[in-house]
């Protein structure tokens, strides 16, 4: 009896979520991919406090969840902000060291990851991680014995992703650099948190990327056509013939991403 080796995908949740919450939100996709993909959900290292939350995020009572009573209710982030304007970040370095050790452990156990799937802040973190695995010397603390902790990934999914522009992250991922890992960008055209104009800045750094848009807001689309499309793309991210999940695509996904034009974009907003 033959067995199929599942692709291992590291999943990075969004701000004010955790691995458990995001796994529930991707339950339909997980079911769709159960014969081909093992999704590995992890918790970001930073626990959020009520003052870390913003108007469009969970309530104070949710932020005050007791990790000893219900660890699945604790809200987390890959980095935090020191101001309401979200201009001063803290903690990305800690998260990269956390991911470094997680990836090294996976290699040591013979369970390397094929790709990363991130949502919102997790998508931004996933893009930084993907770029860093291609060029690990950009951040010396990411190295172990002078080498990257894990081989470069074979795919990256950025759902509601954006290009982080904090001083630390710009040493790794900048408008003048790119990463070649095949990348799927999923963008909501009415996303009030990450407007398309902002998401586009990240898409322009992925020459081997594909953009798919939906008419909704800040979420990973879960209808049947999207589940089938994402499952097919995860199976073969180099297959440009996989049909779009939308009947009429706003963007021509077969043309080079840096040449996207004539797209009406909402005004910028914070993540």
TrEMBL record:
MF GO annotations: hydrolase activity
Composition skew (Polar residues), residue ranges: 259-271
A family per Pfam: FSH1
SUPFAM superfamilies the record matches: alpha/beta-Hydrolases (SSF53474)
Swiss-Prot/TrEMBL keywords: Hydrolase
Gene3D superfamilies found in the cross-reference section: alpha/beta hydrolase
Domain of life: Eukaryota
Listed PANTHER family: ESTERASE OVCA2 (PTHR48070)
Name recorded for this polypeptide: FSH1-domain-containing protein
Source organism (scientific name): Lentinula detonsa
């Amino acid at each position: 009896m033959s067995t199929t080796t599942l692709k291992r995908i590291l999943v990075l949740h969004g701000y004010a979520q955790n691995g458990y919450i995001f796994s529930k939100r991707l339950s339909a996709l997980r079911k769709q991919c159960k014969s081909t993909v093992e999704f590995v959900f992890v918790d970001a290292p930073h626990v959020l406090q009520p003052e870390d939350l913003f108007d469009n995020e969970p309530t104070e009572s949710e932020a005050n969840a007791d990790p000893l009573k219900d660890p699945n209710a604790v809200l987390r982030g890959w980095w935090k902000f020191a101001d309401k304007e979200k201009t001063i970040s803290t903690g990305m370095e800690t998260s990269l060291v956390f991911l470094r050790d997680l990836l090294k452990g996976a290699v040591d156990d013979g369970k390397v990851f094929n790709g990363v799937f991130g949502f919102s802040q997790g998508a931004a973190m996933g893009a930084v991680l993907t770029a860093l695995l291609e060029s690990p010397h950009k951040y010396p603390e990411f190295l172990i014995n002078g080498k990257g902790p894990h081989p470069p990934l074979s795919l990256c999914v950025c759902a509601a992703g954006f290009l982080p522009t904090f001083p630390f992250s710009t040493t790794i991922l900048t408008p003048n650099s790119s990463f070649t890992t095949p990348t799927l960008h999923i963008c909501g055209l009415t996303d009030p948190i990450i407007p398309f104009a902002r998401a586009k800045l990240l898409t322009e750094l992925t020459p081997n990327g594909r953009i798919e848009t939906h008419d909704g807001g800040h979420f990973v689309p879960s209808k049947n056509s999207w589940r089938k499309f994402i499952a097919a793309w995860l199976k073969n991210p180099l297959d440009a013939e996989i049909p779009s999940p939308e009947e009429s695509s706003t963007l021509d996904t077969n043309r080079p991403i840096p040449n996207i034009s004539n797209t009406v974009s909402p005004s910028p907003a914070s993540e």
